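Dear colleague,

Following up on Tuesday's group meeting, I ran the structure prediction for the two-component complex that the binding team flagged. I've pasted the input sequences exactly as they went in, so you can double-check that nothing got truncated or mislabelled along the way. The structure tokens for the whole assembly follow below. Feel free to forward this to whoever is handling the docking comparison.

Inputs:
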Amino acid sequence: MTDGRFDRIALIGIGLIGSSIARDVKELGLAKEVVISTRSPETLRRAEELGLGTAYVASAAEAVRGADLVVVSVPVGASEEVARQISPNLKAGAIVTDVGSTKASVIAQMAPHMPQGVHFIPGHPLAGTEKSGPDAGFAGLFRGRWCIFTPLPDTDPQALEKLKAFWTALGSRIDEMDPQHHDKVLAIVSHLPHIIAYNIVGTADDLETVTESEVIKYSASGFRDFTRLAASDPTMWRDVCLHNKDAILEMLARFSEDLAYLQRAIRWGEGDKLFDLFTRTRAVRRSIVEAGQDVDAPDFGRHALDAKK
Amino acid sequence: MTDGRFDRIALIGIGLIGSSIARDVKELGLAKEVVISTRSPETLRRAEELGLGTAYVASAAEAVRGADLVVVSVPVGASEEVARQISPNLKAGAIVTDVGSTKASVIAQMAPHMPQGVHFIPGHPLAGTEKSGPDAGFAGLFRGRWCIFTPLPDTDPQALEKLKAFWTALGSRIDEMDPQHHDKVLAIVSHLPHIIAYNIVGTADDLETVTESEVIKYSASGFRDFTRLAASDPTMWRDVCLHNKDAILEMLARFSEDLAYLQRAIRWGEGDKLFDLFTRTRAVRRSIVEAGQDVDAPDFGRHALDAKK
């Protein structure tokens, strides 16, 4: 049975990611039963209104009873608490996985609580939008996107195959790496961009010489691109910052060093240094488009949407 | 005659902006004659192949003879040279404008060369994409976008009205401010975002611990958003950095100060500070979407385009 199907799936957390999984599972018929649990009573009620699962329970501990697959989709800082709650009720042979953006920390938080005979396999689907909550999810979110697994040394290969088959059924492309390397890669491709975006939006918001309404009015000239990432879920991103600290601080240090170099070139009118960098970065964009990792349409194809307004 | 029409328009520079103006002028019938001039012989030939004007001349000095409106669309660092070349041949009563992203520097470069009886009115349409060259332009680029004028104290009100009517005919929304304020506003909404984007792409490109192919492969998790701005024209942006130095250095200093605060909060695990900032920036995004300055579709509506691949 490696077709990605499970008899009973428990989804702990039903935000953008959890609810997208739920929609795919339903649409693709990947499970007979889908038990949904989340801490907030309103969110749980909303999940039920949306018909995302087959059962809705407030307690994570209750939700995982009899489940063959448990997917934990909570802010990474809540991982240990969830692991502690669910561990007594996990079924022998069950697979427990997560979707967290940091892996070393999640492993440190969850692995010690996993009972013998339960397969804990950390995972991270690189998918999402700047929206959050159960209404923000949609079927097909994971299609064509990478899902990275960071298996532990003693991970059961068969269990890993079953989990990979599940994510493949959702349309993901599968990758594997060790947790420390994952955390470094994500620090540069995801965490640093988000932190920089949050920061620049904060800087603009704080200016006295340029009003907030001017910033908003003229934002299409570049600034608005950053506001998308800076609109991402605050709880999720606070936890990412706190739980991938070392890799993030390393990337921030390099970024700041490079920025100081650029700033000096501007101050001293060193046009060649600026031109060299600006030419090099253009090539990176080209590679991303060629690799099919972004659309080639100018302005992300936004002009067509703008014009419709 | 304030319908935005001119008998003869000369376009000096025919890149993304110049060629978009040309396309609009043709489509809307805003001029009887459109004379195009640009430094590069290949670009001039390309403009002719695309049928962007009614005449094509290598010399800017020749191109402006008899023109009622001259639009200079060149990298801001080339403004003085163009002003020097065209000034002897400008017709009395002609309007000369530009589209440069910095205004104090362009005024300092061009105004001293403008003959008596010629109306020099600096302008800046806030429009563009990350693409460049005459093939990148398109009709409708300026529709719904702001065009900011920074008139000089002695600007003739009638000439200003005529120029505003022209840009209004292209679909622009018109604004006016003094050059110094323009340069500060643009430093935060446009120049800083581009510089930061160039910088982070450079940092990622230089890493030893994470390969370039990993950066590209996983770029959809945030990084790719920055690569769009970082793919903008290197010459244009080198010139912007060199010609709006003071305002840019001021914004860079504030950005770095704020980033140091954020970095410290990450190092010391001060989750509340992070959460506060991340919540505040989310509200800025909301204001931009509400003001109609960006699309509300998650991920800039990119998912729909991604899925088509």
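Chain B touches chain A through 112 residues (CB under 8 Å).

Cheers,
M.
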